[in-house]
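User: Run a structure prediction on this.
Assistant: Running it now.
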Amino acid sequence: MTGSGEQHGAPGPGRHVLVGVTGGIAIYKAVELVRSLVREGLAPTVVTTAAARRFVTPLCFAAVSRGPVLDDDSAWRSTDGWFEHIDAARAAGVMVVAPATANTLAKMAAGIADNLLTSIYLAFRGPVIVAPTMNWAMYEHPATQESLRALAARGVEVLPTGRGDLACGEEGLGRMAEPEAIVAAVRRALAVTASGPLRGRRVVVTAGGTREPVDAVRFVGNRSSGKMGRALADEAYLRGADVTLVATHAVEGAPYATVAVETAAEMGAAVREATAAADVLVMAAAVADYAPLAPASGKIERGERETLTLEMTRTVDVLASAARPGLLRVAFAAEAGPRLDRAREKKAAKGVDLLVFNDVLAEGVGIGADENELTILARDRETHVSRRSKRACAAAVLDAVEEALS
């Protein structure tokens, strides 16, 4: 998502978003969600329930949305001969309910329209997204799960909840998806009419650096942040792909499938399974080339030795082990210096369709930075991508992927 505070210009046709806000403690995330939508150049119209107004005043949402906030008091006010809830439903391109409580989800599933938000839902004919949030027991209750299944069967996109500490003091599933993931889902829904080579394709992306255990406490690893891989997964999702992200870092609130791994062996197994029926593999992860041959089962005590020698063994070549006919493979080559010659050699040796080269020693675009500078090596040409955000770099890489698929 856009990380800066710049405004992208006035929203055009099809950029209006209905944001339904219900009475959950995660409502503080809804404020940031509305701000993020405005930053994306979208025009959010906030619709609050009576319970939501007990958490956050309409004035707060009006300030961040730069527009009026609709509620039950304004539900039946006439505008130009029509009613406001009908006008709101007609004007929007997508509707998102965040936070979506168990109560509102049940009403939506049952077709109960006893407030402005649920009335708008029944009148709306575009894509609908819900971001559930509640106590883990409420979330796992058969009634709530039935509501979610019913909504999904009607085409509503149900974003996954996160696991962690809940407001009730317990731990489990029930945390609302992060605003960034919800914005990604909104952008994808607004682009549903767009067509491209990635729409409907199965794309597997890897991210982060592997950790190879030395003992039960220590590991051999690298400083890869996983930001580039996450940006690639987000961009592929926005282009309509069925995405699986295999990552070594925690991924909160992603609107697509994620697989958590730690070692090169785990990543290799996860990638082979995920790519069995995939169309594209993008290997953005920094996989360790070597791992300790015999890691200690316990903790190596410092006082027992003056020196420590590790015997290392070569790890699995994840990219090579996933190779098969019909799978388009994209490799990343991070070099310490402007070694484009080595990148060309690697592309030839690996036999990949695309190779993305970046110099990790270049100022401002090294490991962990928010920006990158790339050269994309394709079969018949090389494309330089000047320094820009990793999201913009991801778009350039996937442009090349789409061209290769075509």
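Residues 283 and 319 are 7 Å apart (CA to CA).
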